[in-house]
Amino acid sequence: MSRPKHTPEFRARVSQEYIDGTGSIQFLANKYGIGYSALAGWVNEYRIHGITAFCHKKNRTYSKEFKIKCVEAVMDGEGSVNDIIAGYGISSRSVLRQWIKVYNANRGLKDYGSKQEAYMAEARRKTTVEERKETVDYCINHNRDYKNTAAKYGVSYSQVYSG
């Protein structure tokens, strides 16, 4: 996961400018070269959590039950996607949108199981074409579960992903 390119202080300052009436979301987004949706999300999070909304030092993890609760909150009209990510402390709009997509496709949301070792560069090793084919086949036949495939075959996540 890449780190945000804007500091928490910057995000808070721009959000406060909007709250103070300095300009519209569109005006401030253009002024600072920020996406409209991103800035709207910042403002919603900042209103609820203050600057702490932007001070995350590691990836967040979410349970299956939490994901379902958030998706159903959107579906039941409890708020917009921005309202739900801010209110429930979800890391981004794209995360919630992906959950909605999976939920609507009846593919079943899953608990996040961190397998950090699957991402680490030390997991890389030389593999033969046959091993790569076997790894890719396994991954496809197991619902594209890259993390567990990487762990099972002792390769990095990117090796599974790129085949």
Descriptive key words:
57% helix, 9 helices, mainly alpha, 163 residues
Description:
The chain is mostly helical. It has 9 helices and no strands. Helix 1 (8-19) crosses helix 3. The longest helix is centred in the N-terminal third of the chain and has 14 residues, at 36-49.
List the helices and strands and how they pair.
Layout: H1 8-19, H2 25-32, H3 36-49, H4 64-75, H5 81-88, H6 93-104, H7 129-141, H8 146-153, H9 157-162
Helix pairs in contact: 1-3, 3-5, 4-6, 7-8
Short summary of the structure?
This protein has 163 residues and is mainly α. Helix content is 57%, strand content 0%. It is built from nine helices and no strands.
Topology as a string of helices (H) and strands (E): HHHHHHHHH
Largest sheet composition = none
Low-confidence runs of at least 5 consecutive residues: 116-123
Instruction: Count up the helices.
Output: 9
Q: Kindly name the structural category.
A: mainly alpha
Secondary structure: number of strands: 0
What would the principal axes of the Cα set say about the shape?
Answer: elongated
CA(first)-CA(last) distance:
20 Å
